Amino acid sequence: MRLTKSRINDSVNRIGTIHPFDGAIRYYSPSSITKMNIKSPKFKPIKDRIHYGGAVITNEEINALLATIKKNGGFNWTVGEKGREFEKALADYTSHRHVIFTNSGSSALLLGLLALNLPKGSFVILPATTFPTAFSSIIYAGYKPLIIDSKVETFNIDEKELEKAFKKYPKTKAVIAVNIAGNIPNLDAIGKIVKRYKAKLVLDNCDGFGGKYKGKPVESIADVAATSFHAAHIITTGEGGAVFTSNPEIAMRARQFRDWGREDGDDSLTKLGNGLPEDYPRRYSYPVLGFNLKPLELQAAVGLVQLKKLEKFKQIRTNNFKQLNNIFSKYPNLFKPVVIERNADPCWFSFPVLVIGVSRSSFVNFLSENNIETRPIFAGNILRHPIGKAQSLGSCKNADEILEKGVFIGLSPRTTSDMIKFMGKTINDFAKNYK
């Protein structure tokens, strides 16, 4: 299809959501989304699917994309000026000095772990309830995962198990705390333990960008943090992620690993005495075995627009969370909704809950029959998966329960009040069968 000016104008004058898996854009009229008062076409129960997530894309993002394409001649889209602007805006928001924009949250976590430059074979503690790339990143970075149990109430790392792990393996070098569905662990207790053993705290906040702990951006509490800008997450660049740190050496190494392994510098001459000619440009020397994990300038342009909407997105997600929590809390014999830690102000990715009074499949199937999407709580227990060969402390019984009974449903800004009401009705109808 030929991309004419009229077709471009037509796309700019429409507004769409990007489905998080199939990538299809579903369009709405400009009048339906005004000043972030997000309204979809009237919801038709059962006929319309309630997705677990989805990006909010408006004229602003589309115009930012078109302006970037025009400025860069339509072909040179590698990350540059907009990327640096986005990194600075992210640094200002999180109070970290350095941000490295990446092509995904998984890449961000891998780069952060590599940049720690720990001795090869070092133990890195990880909760059993995690996303699989948190686990695999430890191995690819050359370290050993030490798996501990999660708390069944919060789905997050259990600080008591963390203390036990350090007592048994006192030379452990780092801990990855994972914010499951955006929920924030007990960072006070975790931070004290990590500091006592002179280890590093890494935060996998791919689900919960915008969350705060004791009033501070949650990333600022960790030595290294990672987040994701996937289409289903809090703000989106389509795909994308970022590494956060205030340590300049960690930041330099993360950028080197992201950018093919080359020197993080300008076009000045090397003069490093490392065997390269003296007239060789410094930024084309390669001190580490790197990758190409860079994002696009187009993604940064979208990210800058999305970041301005973060607080509104969080407000909607928080309101949706409260409504779903009220619904599930009416049936303590059937459900255990997630518990929020003291001092935590999460930015919720989804609503996680344990199905306790009946089989999970009966509940999931009932929701599916009513066209409501669900997902398991990520890996549940990473040790139970084919890749999950790692050292662990015990059997991780809480993570087993999360694996077998956990489920989450959506509460993104695309989840309208009509959808929440229908989900409430559906849950009520399900519960009636189990009085």
* Helix content estimate: 25-40%
Number of strands: 19
Please give the radius of gyration in angstroms: 23 Å
Tell me the strand percentage band: 15-25%
Low-confidence stretches: 1-35
Biggest sheet details:
8 strands, mixed
Tally the helices: what do you get? Answer: 13
Oligomer: single chain
Estimated structural class: alpha/beta
The 3D shape can be described as globular
Estimate the mean pLDDT confidence: 90
List the helices and strands and how they pair.
Layout: H1 5-12, E1 15-18, E2 25-28, E3 33-34, E4 37-38, E5 55-57, H2 59-71, H3 81-94, E6 98-102, H4 105-116, E7 123-127, H5 132-140, E8 144-148, H6 159-168, E9 174-178, H7 187-196, E10 200-204, E11 212-213, E12 216-217, E13 224-228, E14 241-245, H8 248-258, H9 297-308, H10 310-329, E15 335-337, E16 344-345, E17 350-355, H11 360-369, E18 391-392, H12 397-405, E19 406-410, H13 417-432
Parallel strand pairs: 7-8, 7-9, 8-18, 9-10, 10-13
Antiparallel strand pairs: 1-2, 1-5, 3-4, 6-14, 11-12, 11-16, 13-14, 15-17, 17-19
Helix pairs in contact: 2-9, 3-9, 4-5, 4-8, 10-13
